[in-house]
Specification:
- The structure is a homodimer.
- Chain A is mainly α.
- Chain A is built from 7 helices and 2 strands.
- In chain A, α2 packs across α3.
- The first copy, chain A, is elongated, with a radius of gyration of 18 Å.
- In chain A, β1 and β2 form a beta hairpin.
- The first copy, chain A, binds a DNA duplex through α1 and α3.
DNA sequence: GACAGCCTATGACACTTGTAGTAGGTTCAA
DNA sequence: TTGAACCTACTACAAGTGTCATAGGCTGTC
Protein backbone atom coordinates (compact mmCIF):
# COMPACT_ATOMS: atom_id res chain seq x y z
CA UNK A 1 0.00 0.00 0.00
CA UNK A 2 0.89 3.56 -0.53
CA UNK A 3 1.36 6.10 2.18
CA UNK A 4 -1.24 8.51 0.91
CA UNK A 5 -3.36 8.88 4.00
CA UNK A 6 -5.42 11.63 2.43
CA UNK A 7 -4.13 14.92 3.72
CA UNK A 8 -6.64 17.25 5.26
CA UNK A 9 -6.41 20.76 3.92
CA UNK A 10 -7.89 23.84 5.52
CA UNK A 11 -9.85 26.43 3.66
CA UNK A 12 -6.91 28.68 3.12
CA UNK A 13 -4.51 25.89 2.30
CA UNK A 14 -6.96 24.76 -0.30
CA UNK A 15 -7.06 28.21 -1.79
CA UNK A 16 -3.34 28.16 -2.21
CA UNK A 17 -3.39 24.68 -3.65
CA UNK A 18 -5.87 25.92 -6.19
CA UNK A 19 -3.46 28.55 -7.32
CA UNK A 20 -0.76 25.96 -7.66
CA UNK A 21 -3.00 23.62 -9.56
CA UNK A 22 -3.75 26.47 -11.90
CA UNK A 23 -0.24 27.56 -12.56
CA UNK A 24 1.47 24.23 -12.18
CA UNK A 25 4.18 25.55 -9.93
CA UNK A 26 5.26 28.90 -8.57
CA UNK A 27 6.97 30.96 -5.91
CA UNK A 28 5.36 32.36 -2.81
CA UNK A 29 5.26 35.72 -4.52
CA UNK A 30 3.45 34.34 -7.53
CA UNK A 31 0.96 32.58 -5.36
CA UNK A 32 0.25 35.63 -3.33
CA UNK A 33 -0.28 37.76 -6.38
CA UNK A 34 -2.85 35.38 -7.71
CA UNK A 35 -5.02 35.49 -4.66
CA UNK A 36 -8.05 37.75 -5.02
CA UNK A 37 -7.06 41.33 -4.23
CA UNK A 38 -9.83 41.95 -1.81
CA UNK A 39 -8.76 40.01 1.18
CA UNK A 40 -5.26 39.25 -0.02
CA UNK A 41 -3.08 38.22 2.91
CA UNK A 42 0.42 39.47 3.62
CA UNK A 43 3.30 37.88 1.85
CA UNK A 44 4.53 36.18 4.98
CA UNK A 45 1.08 34.82 5.66
CA UNK A 46 1.16 33.03 2.36
CA UNK A 47 4.67 31.94 3.12
CA UNK A 48 3.53 30.40 6.37
CA UNK A 49 0.75 28.47 4.73
CA UNK A 50 3.06 27.20 2.05
CA UNK A 51 5.44 26.06 4.73
CA UNK A 52 2.63 24.19 6.45
CA UNK A 53 1.66 22.63 3.17
CA UNK A 54 5.23 21.48 2.85
CA UNK A 55 5.11 19.93 6.28
CA UNK A 56 1.96 18.12 5.28
CA UNK A 57 3.61 16.91 2.09
CA UNK A 58 1.02 18.63 0.02
CA UNK A 59 3.61 20.61 -1.91
CA UNK A 60 7.36 20.44 -2.34
CA UNK A 61 10.22 22.62 -3.45
CA UNK A 62 10.76 21.95 -7.08
CA UNK A 63 13.78 24.16 -7.64
CA UNK A 64 15.24 27.52 -6.84
CA UNK A 65 15.23 30.53 -9.09
CA UNK A 66 17.36 33.40 -7.90
CA UNK A 67 16.92 33.08 -4.19
CA UNK A 68 13.29 32.06 -4.35
CA UNK A 69 11.93 28.56 -4.15
CA UNK A 70 9.47 27.31 -6.69
CA UNK A 71 6.82 25.06 -5.23
CA UNK A 72 4.78 22.41 -6.91
CA UNK A 73 1.75 20.49 -5.68
CA UNK A 74 2.14 16.92 -4.55
CA UNK A 75 -1.52 16.41 -3.89
CA UNK A 76 -3.64 16.34 -7.00
CA UNK A 77 -6.70 18.41 -7.40
CA UNK A 78 -8.60 15.25 -7.93
CA UNK A 79 -7.60 13.61 -4.71
CA UNK A 80 -8.25 16.77 -2.75
CA UNK A 81 -11.68 17.06 -4.27
CA UNK A 82 -12.26 13.44 -3.63
CA UNK A 83 -11.66 13.94 0.02
CA UNK A 84 -13.89 16.99 0.22
CA UNK A 85 -16.71 15.19 -1.47
CA UNK A 86 -16.45 12.20 0.75
CA UNK A 87 -16.57 14.38 3.79
CA UNK A 88 -19.58 16.15 2.46
CA UNK A 89 -21.26 12.88 1.68
CA UNK A 90 -20.83 11.74 5.22
CA UNK A 91 -22.89 14.71 6.26
CA UNK A 92 -25.55 13.48 3.93
CA UNK A 93 -25.62 10.06 5.39
CA UNK A 94 -23.34 8.57 2.77
CA UNK A 95 -25.74 8.74 -0.09
CA UNK A 96 -25.25 11.08 -2.98
CA UNK A 97 -28.94 11.35 -3.60
CA UNK A 98 -29.85 14.10 -1.16
CA UNK A 99 -26.84 16.02 -2.35
CA UNK A 100 -27.89 15.72 -5.95
CA UNK A 101 -31.43 16.58 -5.07
CA UNK A 102 -30.21 19.65 -3.35
CA UNK A 103 -28.22 20.69 -6.38
CA UNK A 104 -31.16 20.13 -8.64
CA UNK A 105 -33.50 22.02 -6.36
CA UNK A 106 -31.25 25.00 -6.12
CA UNK A 107 -30.83 25.15 -9.83
CA UNK A 108 -27.20 24.21 -9.77
CA UNK A 109 -27.93 21.29 -11.98
CA UNK A 110 -29.76 21.29 -15.26
CA UNK A 111 -31.44 18.62 -17.25
CA UNK A 112 -28.66 18.83 -19.78
CA UNK A 113 -26.11 18.19 -17.08
CA UNK A 114 -27.98 15.09 -16.11
CA UNK A 115 -28.19 13.89 -19.66
CA UNK A 116 -24.50 14.21 -20.11
CA UNK A 117 -23.78 12.45 -16.90
CA UNK A 118 -26.01 9.68 -17.95
CA UNK A 119 -24.14 9.32 -21.15
CA UNK A 120 -20.92 9.29 -19.22
CA UNK A 121 -22.15 6.64 -16.85
CA UNK A 122 -23.44 4.47 -19.63
CA UNK A 123 -20.12 4.75 -21.38
CA UNK A 124 -18.24 3.90 -18.27
CA UNK A 125 -20.23 0.81 -17.48
CA UNK A 126 -19.70 -0.51 -20.97
CA UNK A 127 -16.00 -0.03 -20.34
CA UNK A 128 -16.12 -2.47 -17.52
CA UNK A 129 -13.56 -4.59 -19.26
CA UNK A 130 -10.52 -2.46 -18.51
CA UNK A 131 -9.41 -1.27 -15.15
CA UNK A 132 -10.95 2.11 -14.48
CA UNK A 133 -7.90 3.55 -12.80
CA UNK A 134 -5.37 4.56 -15.43
CA UNK A 135 -8.00 5.71 -17.83
CA UNK A 136 -8.57 8.77 -15.73
CA UNK A 137 -7.56 12.09 -17.26
CA UNK A 138 -8.52 15.19 -15.35
CA UNK A 139 -5.55 16.34 -13.49
CA UNK A 140 -3.50 16.65 -16.56
CA UNK A 141 -2.48 20.20 -15.82
CA UNK A 142 -0.62 19.48 -12.68
CA UNK A 143 2.93 18.94 -13.56
CA UNK A 144 2.83 19.44 -17.23
CA UNK A 145 4.75 22.69 -17.29
CA UNK A 146 7.89 21.65 -15.61
CA UNK B 1 -34.23 41.28 5.87
CA UNK B 2 -33.66 38.41 8.10
CA UNK B 3 -30.70 37.95 10.36
CA UNK B 4 -29.67 34.57 9.05
CA UNK B 5 -26.04 35.11 8.25
CA UNK B 6 -25.43 31.46 7.61
CA UNK B 7 -23.78 30.00 10.65
CA UNK B 8 -20.62 28.04 10.11
CA UNK B 9 -20.64 24.67 11.85
CA UNK B 10 -17.62 22.54 12.58
CA UNK B 11 -17.47 18.86 11.89
CA UNK B 12 -18.46 17.88 15.36
CA UNK B 13 -21.10 20.53 15.73
CA UNK B 14 -22.60 19.24 12.56
CA UNK B 15 -22.67 15.74 13.93
CA UNK B 16 -24.64 16.91 16.88
CA UNK B 17 -26.98 18.92 14.74
CA UNK B 18 -27.63 15.77 12.79
CA UNK B 19 -28.76 14.03 15.90
CA UNK B 20 -31.05 16.89 16.72
CA UNK B 21 -32.47 16.96 13.23
CA UNK B 22 -33.17 13.27 13.59
CA UNK B 23 -34.90 13.37 16.91
CA UNK B 24 -36.38 16.83 16.66
CA UNK B 25 -35.22 17.87 20.10
CA UNK B 26 -33.45 16.31 23.01
CA UNK B 27 -31.25 16.62 26.05
CA UNK B 28 -27.50 16.47 26.12
CA UNK B 29 -27.78 12.93 27.38
CA UNK B 30 -29.99 11.86 24.52
CA UNK B 31 -27.69 13.43 22.02
CA UNK B 32 -24.66 11.77 23.46
CA UNK B 33 -26.30 8.39 23.47
CA UNK B 34 -27.10 8.67 19.82
CA UNK B 35 -23.57 9.30 18.75
CA UNK B 36 -21.83 6.22 17.33
CA UNK B 37 -20.42 4.14 20.17
CA UNK B 38 -17.00 3.84 18.73
CA UNK B 39 -15.57 7.26 19.25
CA UNK B 40 -18.35 8.53 21.48
CA UNK B 41 -17.15 11.59 23.38
CA UNK B 42 -17.63 12.24 27.08
CA UNK B 43 -20.89 13.65 28.27
CA UNK B 44 -19.34 16.99 29.07
CA UNK B 45 -17.75 17.16 25.67
CA UNK B 46 -21.16 16.98 24.10
CA UNK B 47 -22.38 19.48 26.59
CA UNK B 48 -19.65 21.90 25.57
CA UNK B 49 -20.49 21.60 21.91
CA UNK B 50 -24.15 22.11 22.60
CA UNK B 51 -23.27 25.22 24.55
CA UNK B 52 -21.26 26.52 21.63
CA UNK B 53 -24.13 25.76 19.32
CA UNK B 54 -26.31 27.80 21.62
CA UNK B 55 -23.89 30.69 21.45
CA UNK B 56 -24.00 30.50 17.69
CA UNK B 57 -27.78 30.44 17.74
CA UNK B 58 -27.82 27.11 16.03
CA UNK B 59 -29.89 25.53 18.79
CA UNK B 60 -31.92 26.81 21.71
CA UNK B 61 -33.34 25.60 24.95
CA UNK B 62 -36.84 24.53 24.28
CA UNK B 63 -37.86 23.61 27.80
CA UNK B 64 -36.70 21.87 30.92
CA UNK B 65 -37.60 18.38 31.97
CA UNK B 66 -36.53 17.47 35.45
CA UNK B 67 -33.33 19.38 35.73
CA UNK B 68 -32.28 18.82 32.17
CA UNK B 69 -32.68 21.20 29.28
CA UNK B 70 -34.18 20.02 26.06
CA UNK B 71 -32.57 21.56 23.02
CA UNK B 72 -34.00 22.06 19.61
CA UNK B 73 -32.29 23.06 16.38
CA UNK B 74 -32.71 26.59 15.09
CA UNK B 75 -30.76 25.94 11.93
CA UNK B 76 -32.49 23.64 9.50
CA UNK B 77 -30.78 20.68 7.98
CA UNK B 78 -31.49 22.15 4.65
CA UNK B 79 -29.79 25.44 5.27
CA UNK B 80 -26.79 23.77 6.82
CA UNK B 81 -26.46 21.47 3.85
CA UNK B 82 -26.94 24.37 1.57
CA UNK B 83 -23.99 26.11 3.09
CA UNK B 84 -21.80 23.05 2.92
CA UNK B 85 -22.62 22.48 -0.68
CA UNK B 86 -21.96 26.05 -1.61
CA UNK B 87 -18.62 25.95 0.05
CA UNK B 88 -17.77 22.77 -1.74
CA UNK B 89 -18.89 24.22 -5.03
CA UNK B 90 -16.58 27.16 -4.59
CA UNK B 91 -13.75 24.70 -4.51
CA UNK B 92 -15.00 23.38 -7.78
CA UNK B 93 -15.09 26.75 -9.38
CA UNK B 94 -18.79 27.25 -8.84
CA UNK B 95 -20.04 24.61 -11.19
CA UNK B 96 -21.76 21.45 -10.08
CA UNK B 97 -20.59 19.50 -13.06
CA UNK B 98 -17.17 18.39 -11.86
CA UNK B 99 -18.73 17.43 -8.58
CA UNK B 100 -21.33 15.33 -10.29
CA UNK B 101 -18.81 13.82 -12.58
CA UNK B 102 -16.76 12.86 -9.61
CA UNK B 103 -19.73 11.21 -7.97
CA UNK B 104 -20.53 9.30 -11.10
CA UNK B 105 -16.94 8.23 -11.57
CA UNK B 106 -16.59 6.96 -8.06
CA UNK B 107 -19.77 5.01 -8.32
CA UNK B 108 -21.64 7.09 -5.80
CA UNK B 109 -24.25 7.77 -8.34
CA UNK B 110 -26.16 5.27 -10.40
CA UNK B 111 -28.09 5.55 -13.59
CA UNK B 112 -31.26 5.04 -11.64
CA UNK B 113 -30.38 7.96 -9.42
CA UNK B 114 -29.96 10.12 -12.46
CA UNK B 115 -33.24 8.98 -13.92
CA UNK B 116 -35.06 9.87 -10.80
CA UNK B 117 -33.42 13.23 -10.57
CA UNK B 118 -34.37 13.91 -14.10
CA UNK B 119 -37.95 13.12 -13.35
CA UNK B 120 -37.74 15.38 -10.37
CA UNK B 121 -36.31 18.23 -12.35
CA UNK B 122 -38.87 17.88 -15.08
CA UNK B 123 -41.61 17.82 -12.50
CA UNK B 124 -40.24 20.84 -10.77
CA UNK B 125 -39.97 22.94 -13.86
CA UNK B 126 -43.54 22.19 -14.78
CA UNK B 127 -44.49 23.31 -11.28
CA UNK B 128 -43.11 26.73 -11.91
CA UNK B 129 -46.54 28.17 -11.28
CA UNK B 130 -46.75 27.64 -7.52
CA UNK B 131 -44.39 28.87 -4.94
CA UNK B 132 -41.83 26.18 -4.26
CA UNK B 133 -41.57 26.92 -0.58
CA UNK B 134 -44.19 24.97 1.37
CA UNK B 135 -44.17 22.05 -1.01
CA UNK B 136 -40.70 21.06 0.13
CA UNK B 137 -40.31 17.93 2.02
CA UNK B 138 -36.58 17.80 1.99
CA UNK B 139 -35.70 15.99 5.12
CA UNK B 140 -37.73 12.96 4.34
CA UNK B 141 -35.50 11.43 1.72
CA UNK B 142 -32.46 11.06 3.82
CA UNK B 143 -33.18 7.78 5.33
CA UNK B 144 -35.46 6.38 2.74
CA UNK B 145 -33.09 4.06 0.97
CA UNK B 146 -31.31 2.56 3.84
C1' DG C 1 32.39 45.63 -2.64
C1' DA C 2 28.53 47.95 -0.88
C1' DC C 3 23.50 48.70 -0.87
C1' DA C 4 18.60 48.18 -2.02
C1' DG C 5 15.39 44.86 -2.45
C1' DC C 6 13.56 40.54 -2.30
C1' DC C 7 13.69 35.90 0.09
C1' DT C 8 13.76 32.65 3.72
C1' DA C 9 13.53 31.06 8.53
C1' DT C 10 11.52 31.65 12.81
C1' DG C 11 8.73 33.36 16.40
C1' DA C 12 4.45 35.09 18.01
C1' DC C 13 -0.29 35.59 19.05
C1' DA C 14 -5.21 35.30 19.20
C1' DC C 15 -8.98 32.52 18.01
C1' DT C 16 -11.11 28.01 17.05
C1' DT C 17 -11.95 23.23 17.88
C1' DG C 18 -11.99 18.85 20.23
C1' DT C 19 -11.82 17.00 24.59
C1' DA C 20 -12.70 16.67 29.29
C1' DG C 21 -12.47 17.57 34.55
C1' DT C 22 -14.52 19.78 38.67
C1' DA C 23 -17.73 22.04 41.68
C1' DG C 24 -21.90 22.57 43.00
C1' DG C 25 -27.20 22.56 42.18
C1' DT C 26 -31.57 19.53 41.64
C1' DT C 27 -34.37 15.41 42.04
C1' DC C 28 -36.33 11.52 43.66
C1' DA C 29 -36.74 7.40 46.13
C1' DA C 30 -36.09 5.17 50.50
C1' DT D 1 -33.99 14.29 55.15
C1' DT D 2 -30.51 12.35 53.06
C1' DG D 3 -27.69 10.33 49.59
C1' DA D 4 -27.08 8.59 44.84
C1' DA D 5 -27.47 10.01 40.44
C1' DC D 6 -27.86 13.25 37.19
C1' DC D 7 -27.46 18.03 35.41
C1' DT D 8 -25.47 22.52 34.60
C1' DA D 9 -21.89 26.11 34.72
C1' DC D 10 -17.30 26.94 34.46
C1' DT D 11 -12.47 26.12 33.59
C1' DA D 12 -8.65 24.14 31.14
C1' DC D 13 -5.75 22.91 27.64
C1' DA D 14 -3.41 21.17 23.48
C1' DA D 15 -3.58 21.23 18.58
C1' DG D 16 -4.98 23.55 14.53
C1' DT D 17 -5.58 28.00 11.88
C1' DG D 18 -5.13 32.60 10.18
C1' DT D 19 -2.20 36.44 10.47
C1' DC D 20 1.99 38.80 10.67
C1' DA D 21 6.62 40.96 12.17
C1' DT D 22 11.51 40.51 12.51
C1' DA D 23 16.13 39.18 11.61
C1' DG D 24 19.20 37.99 8.69
C1' DG D 25 20.78 35.84 3.99
C1' DC D 26 21.33 36.21 -1.30
C1' DT D 27 21.79 38.87 -5.64
C1' DG D 28 22.33 42.02 -9.13
C1' DT D 29 23.82 46.66 -9.95
C1' DC D 30 26.55 50.73 -9.57
Amino acid sequence: MDRKKSIRLTRFELEIMHVLWEIGSGSVREIQERLPEKRRPAYTTVQTIVRRLEEKDAVRRLKKIGNAFIFEPLVTRKSAHHRLINELLESFGGSARPLMAHLAETGKLSLEDLKELEAMLAQRSSDASHKPGPARRDDSGNRSLK
